[in-house]
Specification:
Strand content: 5-15%
Number of strands: 14
Largest sheet: 4 strands, antiparallel
Structural class: alpha+beta
Helix content: 40-55%
Shape: globular
Length: 681
Amino acid sequence: MSLKTSFCNKTILKSDLKRFWWVGLLETIILFLTNTLPLWDRVSAQVMGITGAKSYDISRLVTWQNGQFLVLIVFAIAVVALVFSYMHQVASVSLYHSVPISRRKLFITKIISAFILTVAPILINMLMIIGIVTASEASFINEFSAPIGWLYTGVIYTILIISLAAFMNMMTGTPIGTLIFSAGAIFLPAMGISFYQFFCECEVYGFSGEYITDFMRWIYISESNLLDFRYCLVYLVLTAVFLCLAYLLYKNRKLEMYGEVIAVSWLKPVFIAIIAIVASMAGYAYFGEVFGDNNIFYTIPLGVLGTVIAWMVSRKSISPKGILKPILSYIIAVLCVIGFVKFDLSGYERRIPDAEDVEWVNVLDVHVSDEKYMICDGERIAYTEKGKVDTKFKDEKGIKDVIAMHRYAVENRTGGKGYNSIPIKYKLKNGKTLMRDYSYSFTDDMDILKPIYNSQQVRAKRYNLLDGTEKKFNSFTVNDRRVKDEVSLYADNPLLPRFIEALKKDLSEISYEDSMLRSGGSIHINIDYNVEIETEKPVEDSNLLKSYTSRGDGIVINEKFVNTMAILEEIGFLAKIPVADDIVSCGVMVWQNDKAPTVVAETYDTEFAMEKYGDAVNKVTDRGEIEELYGLYDEIITDKKYSDYNTCYNVKVIYTMDGHVFEASCSYDEDKMPEIFKKYM
């Protein structure tokens, strides 16, 4: 095909490749050092018999380790800045556009040059990876799905960043502008979305940002989603959109705009607005950190400064003439936002659904997706846990109980020191979702929380033993920091089923007060088991299946777990718990947060275990004080003490027995601290 009918100019294409070949070579070397060479090292080790799993090595190629995505981003932006660098100099821009080549052909040629220089390194490394896979004698790595997936995801990311960088390049007349605008376009959405969520959590009562997280996933699609072509289409469509926009700007660009920070006049107000917003975000975060609180007015000082700087940059002048208008516009915009938030003009904070409009409502784990996936050799495979119960409230009583809890939070503005977050998610009958997140006190708000926490739905969320999944129990361990030796039961022990059934019975029957207000008991139970799962496609990788089916639960119990405690008494575990006469001495430490003691040794092998904390420990040998300090043990570990971080006192008591040492720690406000500790302040 002749040059006249070709869609690109071969002469310019060859010139670009000849001038910038070193960029492609450099990217090839970096990708080799960060991906190909480490893979070869692992394959070699496994061929020699060193332990390792196929799923680890193969999946590593498509999980963007070692900052690989940053490598692709940096080189894609740099290549665009280089191939379009002629647009930033008067001599070169005049020369290029004096050649009898249409702007369309010139644009396509430059984009192809950028694609070749950045895609070739990925292709070269893929060929080397396939060579490693083929040459390897390890049967577990003799397949090509992961290298192809690595090529696929790398190319998708690369062409998207090139198209975005080309679009940004057309907006500016400087190479530095191309680099800054392109990097900003990539990372600014994450910064903006994260700040929006942070701002709303601080300023909007009850705000829940689950949908924001989902929105972020669509902007920054993970490698596992990219392997699914449905998600890949999002990036391909964006690539096409950015390329079309870049071409339209290039086609209508004025040649004399080289050297301008903003090369498109009508974009200057947009540039000023973006800089003002970024500066406002920085001011809100900075002053909030400095003054220890969050105030919406903190956005104004740096926001005004950012507006002034952006306005001067866009005009290439430091003259203050005309600056008043953008400053006033910014302040008016901020005041509108403040009014909108402070007066709840959207009705967000006051909105409570009616029970008859609710299909179901969920609490506690509302941010956990119902869809679960595993990555097997670069493929995304859905799986479900067999037998898992539905923990949503669908009955009329349950829905009304949650709405009552919701209304209580709105009317009382619950939240503060020592409060616990409880998210709420409604699915309405009209198909919409309503999310809220409030904080409650397990003591002050006990009456309104009782119906929720005594329900079987919440019990199944809090305790995996009650979630209905089919389990294969491997071990059951009981320990208490006061007891030197733990008790472990394994699958072949006949006591294990009894312990499991007793614990399940206690968890199903224990009251809200006894489970929540006494959740800091000293006896800990740890359970190791595997759940049964069903996958949409067969998975033969035993190591991968093990990682997705293994579970471990830790449960703290107290005397209200009557069935479990009965078995512990039967096997003699409770008899091992010391009484006051067994305590030889105590070490007491009391300090404020800004005066934390220096740890001078990391050993418990001394007689009184005091060397760990050195002179910060006050040794107690008086029998009366020892008994009093041991009498406080349950209070310290069981009752939750929520105190002001800046004013409270931390208390640590080290109890020493004959051959065993254990500790208890807590925080107290000075007026609530037991008198025995005040002498050591």
